[in-house]
Amino acid sequence: MRVAIAGAGAVGRSIAGELLENGHEVLLVDKAPTAISVERVPRAEWLLADACEITSLDEAALQRCNVVIAATGDDKVNLVVSLLAKTEYGVPRVVARVNNPKNEWLFNESWGVDVAVSTPRLMSALVEEAVSVGDLVRLLRFSHGDANLVELTLPPESALAGTQVGDVAWPEDTSLVAIIRGTRVLTPTREDSLEAGDELLFVAAQAREEQLEDLLSVRRQNTTG
Questions:
Q1: Beta bridge pairs of residue 30
Q2: Is the CB of residue 153 less than 8 Å from the CB of residue 217?
Q3: CB-based contact 26:5 (threshold 8 Å)
Q4: Whole-number mean pLDDT of the chain?
Q5: pTM for the whole thing?
Q6: What's the pLDDT at 133?
Q7: What is residue 43's predicted lDDT score, i.e. its pLDDT?
Q8: How open is the CA angle 24-14-71, to the nearest 5 degrees?
Q9: What are the angstrom distances between the C-alpha of 159 and each of 15, 155, 176, 200?
Q10: HSE, side-chain direction, 13 A CA sphere, residue 223
Q11: Which residues, other chains included, contact 164 with Cβ-Cβ below 8 Å and sequence gap of 6+?
Q12: I want to staple 204 with a disulfide (CB 3.0 to 4.6 A). Which of 82, 112, 118, 174 is the partner?
């Protein structure tokens, strides 16, 4: 897979290193000569150019890329790069970094963004995820379909503890994609049982999040009497 990354700062270089380790082809683009540090990511291609300019993107052969990542520290630049990548070059997957959470609403399909990653929001979510049991935590927003990656740690009092995945009437437009149980990551099957303390990862429509949280957090009804 060929990936172009606009922005060769610490974030862009870190992403490039991970992708190269996974066997992908990576091009780093930055207009600042001081950012061109070939020795830091020697296996990547490097291009000194302004990623907001069509001529630069032509030189980068963006039409050959499977993914473009707009990872600069400037939200305006990231939006322009995303829009050009999607509309001018038809890049299938565009991922954009959101630096200021107040700008997050702009990072959607209208600007060519498939996935928006807000570092401040993600850090906040990870803190919430570490201390929250029974509360839905939004980890990542996907622009297409208004869907989010959300997490909930199943509380001991949940009515679903001990229930098989296939027996749960999940809300529409939600999908359980992983169960994290201790050090294990499980791909859910209908026969898997949910256990108290499981970290459940869902892709869910935003409109269904409250319904999903209510379903997972509901206490067992006292049937004795």
A1: 48
A2: no
A3: yes
A4: 87
A5: 0.63
A6: 60
A7: 95
A8: 90
A9: 40, 9, 17, 15
A10: 2
A11: 190, 191, 192, 193, 194
A12: 174
For residue 1, CA distances in Å to 26, 59, 64, 68, 96 come to 8, 18, 10, 11, 18
Structure-block tokens of residue 38: 């070939």
- What stretch(es) of the chain map to CATH 3.30.70.1450? 132-216
Q: What tokens does 31 get?
A: 């207009």
CA 25, CA 196: separation in Å to the nearest integer? 42
Strand ranges inside 31-154, DSSP E: 45-48, 67-70, 93-98, 115-118, 137-142, 147-153
b/e code 83-118 from CB counts within 10 Å (16+ = b) = bbbbeebebeebbbbbbeeeebebbbeebbbbbbbb
pLDDT surpasses 50 at 222: no
Of 12-21, 49-58, 148-157, the poorest mean pLDDT is in 148-157
CATH fold of 132-216: Alpha-Beta Plaits (3.30.70)
Handedness of CA 137, 140, 142, 143 (dihedral sign): positive
CATH 3.40.50.720 domain range(s) in the chain = 2-118
Superfamily of domain 2-118 in CATH is NAD(P)-binding Rossmann-like Domain (3.40.50.720)
Distances (CA, A) of 189 to 141, 158, 161, 178: 25, 20, 16, 10
Does residue 123 have a pLDDT over 60?
no
